[in-house]
Design goal:
This protein has 4 helices and 5 strands, in the order αββββααβα. By secondary structure, the chain is an alpha+beta fold. α1 runs antiparallel to α2. The longest helix has 30 residues. The two termini are 27 Å apart.
Length: 173
């Protein structure tokens, strides 16, 4: 008779970390801000791509040309890419059951970067372009997904640390 391998929660934590990474990736792909005014609509991505149109069917696709927006958009994009890479590394190593404490730290660091990116983006644009930006634009799904991803990453880091402590008490890990 084949031995049944005991499954503990550490075998599933990597899926939680990977879900956070996927949400971070989606936040880069989906728009971070949108506006709708007087029959004109527009979607804006972190990197500065602007896609918009009007009720008459005219559409425009291009980059935002405001010099105040470009630096924070690039910084936020880089922070989210680093967070995505850290979460992917943590998920891969957790799945292979390698050094849970290190993976918890990597996941936590990626989660912190995923929180910092959209928060800095929002408040920088609010301070730098106060009348023009958030009075017309509204935060979109690209701003909220990294926050959800960071919550998942922090929860998984806490679970990894508690699993390591439980494993060291029982002598398994």
């Amino acid at each position: 008779m084949a031995q049944i391998k005991k499954k503990d929660r550490t075998q599933y934590i990597w899926k939680l970390i990977m879900a956070g990474g996927v949400l971070t990736l989606l936040s880069l792909v989906l728009p971070s801000a949108f506006f709708i005014e007087s029959g004109v609509w527009g979607l804006l991505w972190y990197i500065g791509i602007l896609w918009g149109g009007d009720i008459y069917g005219g559409e425009v696709l291009g980059f935002i040309d405001d010099g105040r927006y470009i630096p924070i958009g690039v910084i936020t994009t880089v922070l989210l890419i680093i967070a995505l890479i850290l979460m992917a590394i943590s998920a891969r190593n957790t799945k292979k059951e390698r050094n849970f404490k290190l993976n918890a730290g990597i996941s936590f660091l990626g989660s912190i970067l995923a929180i910092i990116g959209p928060i800095v983006y929002y408040f920088y644009l609010d301070a730098e372009i106060p009348v023009l930006f958030w009075d017309h634009f509204l935060p979109f799904v690209g701003v909220f997904l990294p926050l959800i991803a960071s919550i998942l990453g922090i929860i998984s880091a806490i679970m990894l640390v508690s699993a390591t402590k439980l494993g060291s008490k029982s002598g398994e890990r």
